[in-house]
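Quick one: structure tokens for this chain, please?
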Amino acid sequence: MKVQALQGDTVDLLCWRHYGTTQGITEKVLAANPGLSKLLFLNAGQAVELPELPPPGQRKTVQLWD
């Protein structure tokens, strides 16, 4: 999915806004957009490709009491 940056956006801010987290995602966005890591702030209207992420796996829970 392509999104357009707002004035003053950073890559991690775009990740936070779109995915709700930056953990492990910022690196994937930078890999999908060669040359993007050279910019500190993105230009207004700059297109950024945000890759689709696999759905999160089910968390394993532990029952403390039976």
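The mean pLDDT is 91.
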